[in-house]
Amino acid sequence: MKPKIIFFEPGVKVTKHVPIGILVLAAFMREKGYPVAVKEFSGKEIDEDEIREIISRENPKYVGIRVLTGPFIPRALKISKIAKEMGKKVIWGGPHPTILPEQTLENPLIDAIVIGEGEYALLDLISYFENKKIKPLGSGIKINGKAKIFPPQKKCVNLETTPLPAWDLLENINEHFPSKRGNPLKVMSSRGCPFKCGFCHNSNKNVINYLGKYRVISAKKVLDEYDLVQSLIKNKITMLDAGGDYHLISKEYTKNWCETIKQREPHLKWSTHARYSNIDLEMVDMIAKAGCVDINLGVESGSRRIQEFNQKVIDLKKAIPIARALRKNKIFLTNTYIFGHPTETLDELKQTIKYVRKLPGDLNLVQIYRPFPGTPYYELCVKEGKVVPFKKLEDWSNFGLIIGDKNVSRIPTKKLFFYFYSVNLIEQLNEFKNRQVYYLRNGFYREFFDNFVRNRFVKKFKEVLESKGL
Ligand code: B12
Fold first, then answer.
1. Which CATH class is domain 177-460?
2. How much is the pLDDT for 14?
3. What is the pLDDT of residue 226?
4. Which of 178, 338, 365, 374 would staple 204 via disulfide (CB 3.0–4.6 Å)?
5. How many CA within 13 A on the CB side of residue 289?
6. Helices 119-129/20-31 angle, 10° precision
7. Could you tell which of 66, 79, 405 is best to mutate to test the pocket of ligand 1, judged by most ligand atoms within 8 Å of the CB?
């Protein structure tokens, strides 16, 4: 009998997401004959007694946890502490241990980590722990208390032939699909990213070396996942969220994707991610006719120098007719921008603001640049003394919260935050209006009414009242 593995998604308290990464891993390990269980804690408090009770009931030998940088870390540590006290082997995987493997392993509550793609690496790691004399490629372990990191796996997973994510293991699966009128389903449509933008996690050297190559998943497989989930839940799925890191990679893939959706599920609406440099008017027409209602396109900067510095160059003139066509076809268009790139000057920021006004969009999502550990930009910020790297795992616990944002650009700080808040105010008002129109157009009535009571403005107002003790 193979040993049991329990996978935990610690998540964060304030948002609830399907734990895709561990559903994928659980399905893979189950197919290889391992008994598995999945427990999700995103969207709720982590109660120590509950964790103790779960581990004692399931009685696994291994406890696997998916960890992102930020508030996920203290939650994952809480689970790890209980698991260790109960004599289990604790394995961490996901983005945080991938970018900072040695530092993560220094924590005494963690026995091993998996870097990058988890499937084959976990299989080998468990075999290693079960006394098979193999090198656990793709993992990090402790030998006499010291971290030992192994090179990447030699092969990456074929996503067309791996089993569908183990949705059947989610105890409260219906909580992810609450609306009687229709719900979105987040599906895996790709893995990794073919681009290497300086600000992005995907440019980290471990992500590049340990994740395997960029792969896009066929519409057939994605629709098989949709069929599986629909067969397991009470309410209806009306929309596929097929974004991932990067979805519409080429015209050929887009054509096949659109044809398959039109043939198999013509009523389904879907959302996606693409790049202005990889999309043209013919593709806009194709996706509009195949049910695309929402797209995310990154601009990041209106300055050519910053674009080149980012390694994300888009033709600003060419983008305008594409954006116009998307909106004409009633596809909700989100353009994303970053304010305050390292080395950015006030003049360059003004070029971006000018472009925000010029490029049509339903939501112009503006964020302050946040130095993500392990990225080329982060290294630069450290070199310039603008960021001091954290020394231990727990120090990353507050990373990603807006209160921690700081200025690493050459723009005067007051100006940067002034432009950030003033542009955002206008953009968020626009978004509110455009989002309501989008909800009505697509029959998302629950979301339409929810947006009146839970929009950013009401949330902010409540926060202000709470901070004043009212
Ligand atoms: C889709 C997505 C989302 C969706 C989530 C949908 C969902 N249901 O989970 C949305 C848009 C909601 C989202 C939100 C956020 N996301 Co996100 N997201 C992604 C994206 C594009 C794909 C994630 C995914 O599902 N991958 C598919 C699965 C199969 O991969 P995986 O989870 O990585 O798992 C594999 C391995 O990591 C490993 N593994 C994972 N867990 C474990 C555990 C064990 C024990 C083992 C052995 C292995 C292992 O094995 C798995 C199979 O190979 C990634 C990009 C990326 N490259 O990872 C970003 C990414 C994970 N997100 C990121 C961030 C920052 C966030 C937010 C914090 C953003 C924000 N400020 O709000 C939130 C957090 C939300 C939350 N509570 O989880 C960052 C994380 C960076 C970091 N250092 O932590 C990433 C990497 C994006 C980026 N390029 O920077 N996200």
1. alpha beta
2. 85
3. 97
4. 374
5. 14
6. 60
7. 66
Pocket test for ligand 1, best of 8, 9, 20, 214 (most atoms within 8 A of CB): 20
Q: Which amino acid is at 24?
A: V
Average pLDDT value for residue range 405-413: 91
Going from the C-alpha of 446 to that of each of 177, 179, 442, 453, the distances in angstroms are 12, 7, 11, 11
Tell me the three state secondary structure of residue 133.
coil
Cα–Cα distances in angstroms (integers) from residue 177 to residues 42, 84, 180, 186, in the given order: 15, 34, 8, 11
Return the structure tokens found at 286: 């194709």
What kind of fold does domain 5-149 have according to CATH? Rossmann fold (3.40.50)
Predicted pLDDT at 459? 67
Ligand 1 atom at minimum distance from 16 CA:
77
* 317 DSSP β-pair partners: none
User: What pTM does this model have?
Assistant: 0.92
470 pLDDT more than 60 = no
Structure tokens at 192: 């990794």
CA dist., res. 190 & res. 157, Å (int)? 12
The dihedral through the CA atoms of 152, 387, 65, 183 has a sign that is negative
Per domain, the residue ranges of the chain are 5-149, 177-460
d(CA 139, CA 152): 8
Tokens (6 digits) for 107? 């924590």
